[in-house]
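Hi V.,

You were right to ask for the full record rather than a summary. Here it is.
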Amino acid sequence: MTESTPARSGPTSAARATDARRVLLIGGTSEIGHAIVRKLADEGRVRPFLLGRDRDALTRAAAALEQSGVSPVEHDVVEAGDLDSHEAAIARAFTRAGGFDVAVLAIGVLGGHAGLDTGRREALEVLNVNFLGNGSLLLATLRRLREQGHGTLIVLSSVAVERPRASNVLYGAAKAGLDALAQGLADGLADSGVRVLVVRPGFVSTRMTQGLKPAPFATTPELVAAATTRALKHGNHTVWVPHVLRYVFAALRHLPRPIYRRLPL
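Predicted structure:
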């Protein structure tokens, strides 16, 4: 069973004053991220702050959230590949919002399906964004949450971390690094008032996966969001979406390699 700890995701004193939970979405145009924000809004007022690389896209994303009834929405620019800018971007967001109760790390790129034959530029982008960029933003966000003494960071990982497959080895390896970083830092923050929730979805039908053949147990951003907010309330540290994939990959993880490599994965 997934372990749990006492939930500490209550609103800050500033948030209580406005009866709103402050939510930072890093990856401000992410469909899964937006679904999580909307699901949190179903449970009570939220004040989202979007961080992303394209200001025009962020403006449209903020408008879409406001049209769905979530407002006001602020936004600012951060580039996952510009590592030196991350500390300042996260600091600005925390200052402008007066801190956050929940942060969602939802940045990711697909690619590298050719494995060793993937072009160097594409391979490095997959590795840099999914591990280095995400890892840098994760560190900056957790430092700020620890400084304020409370809050939860939700990290969008992947079932691919359990056993990267030849068809997505670069993505799986990068996400595995991020997942391990998040889990390890979470253990170190156990008594700090700061929590980390790692979300491991399977194939999610979004713009990013458009054109790819859906894998078994494919899911949607809305179902990922529902599972995430349940796990947030229950104090879980890890959640699989759908839950059955936890058992599927537990079995796959222990298959002998000669058998595993022959599977159509």
